[in-house]
């Protein structure tokens, strides 16, 4: 870790000199930005990250080199965000839930059953509301570039088929370390257990938790069929992810490099969304073939009714964002 901190601090000094001495990418000395995420190389986050790497290196003629660190090799998502704040991590693709621990309004996107479709989510995220919330990250020494995708989240467990909320009662379900997720699953009757993803994988293998909730691409790429017998396509929450940087690194880049990074992040995010949509049907088929029992038509209305207390509790906390999103969705 000491070596990593020293090299990142050296990068920061280099970037400071670049920012002071040069006004454009053409004039800057080459720099390397370390982009970290917590999932494996088959996951959508890595697809987004590699597309971003390709675009940035091409458009800066190699002046900005992106090094990708997958598999939580630099820490879990909260650790990565804290590292960006203090300058020991440059950037990452981070699930929205942990980001909302730093700017709580970001959690509005993850209220259960808020978005009826991916397209509806994209319209809000890529529009004024999404940009406004990205900009709020600057208040906590972070820079939001664009919304990538974790996707619509679905429930898996090792105990029993789930069709309605009463089937969840008492199940020990891992959720992200975010109060909206915790309260959503408590409202559904689960024993909701917040924990980092790396810990959840071990807990599922050891049987200390019964299940988890994640998009199909995560369930597939982490071979959760090996520990989880049942999947319910509840699509209970649409989870964005964010291309995010530390403000200290961002502020030291020339303005035209900043533009390149923002545009590349948006294009990489849209690329990941497209790939996720194309891959989901194939991934579900492979999970079924591996023996996972998948319920693709649960009682969604019953789930929606059960989580109404979450809206009652959180609506005011998000200020005018919830009514604005609902208006945008009309």
TrEMBL record:
Keywords: Signal
Organism: Vreelandella gomseomensis
Protein name: TRAP transporter substrate-binding protein
Lineage: Bacteria, Pseudomonadati, Pseudomonadota, Gammaproteobacteria, Oceanospirillales
Secretion signal, residue range per the UniProt entry: 1-23
């Amino acid at each position: 870790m000491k070596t990593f901190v020293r090299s990142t601090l050296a990068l920061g000094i280099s970037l400071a000199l670049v920012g002071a001495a040069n006004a454009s990418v053409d004039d800057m000395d080459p720099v390397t930005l370390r982009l970290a995420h917590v999932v494996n190389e088959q996951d959508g986050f890595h697809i987004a990250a590699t597309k971003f790497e390709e675009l940035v290196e091409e458009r800066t003629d190699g002046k900005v080199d992106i090094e990708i660190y997958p598999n939580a090799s630099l820490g879990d998502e909260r650790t990565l965000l804290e590292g960006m704040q203090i300058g020991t991590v440059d950037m990452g693709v981070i699930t929205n839930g942990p980001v909302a621990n730093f700017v709580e309004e970001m959690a509005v996107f993850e209220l259960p059953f808020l978005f009826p479709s991916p397209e509806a989510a994209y319209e809000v995220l890529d529009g004024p509301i999404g940009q406004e919330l990205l900009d709020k990250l600057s208040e906590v020494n972070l820079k939001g570039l664009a919304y990538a995708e974790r996707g619509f989240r679905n429930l898996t467990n090792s105990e029993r088929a789930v069709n309605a909320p009463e089937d969840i009662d008492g199940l020990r379900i891992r959720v992200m370390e975010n109060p909206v997720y915790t309260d959503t699953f408590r409202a559904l009757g689960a024993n909701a257990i917040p924990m980092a993803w790396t810990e959840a994988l071990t807990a599922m293998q050891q049987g200390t938790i019964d299940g988890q909730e994640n998009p199909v691409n995560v369930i597939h790429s982490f071979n959760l069929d090996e520990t989880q017998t049942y999947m319910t396509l509840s699509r209970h929450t649409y989870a964005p992810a964010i291309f995010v940087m530390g403000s200290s690194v961002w502020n030291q880049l020339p303005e035209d490099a900043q533009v390149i990074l923002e545009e590349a992040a948006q294009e990489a995010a849209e690329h990941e969304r497209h790939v996720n949509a194309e891959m989901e049907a194939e991934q579900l088929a492979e999970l079924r073939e591996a023996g996972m029992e998948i319920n693709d038509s649960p009682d969604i209305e019953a789930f929606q009714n059960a989580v109404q207390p979450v809206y009652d509790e959180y609506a005011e906390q998000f200020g005018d964002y919830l009514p604005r999103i609902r208006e945008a969705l009309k």
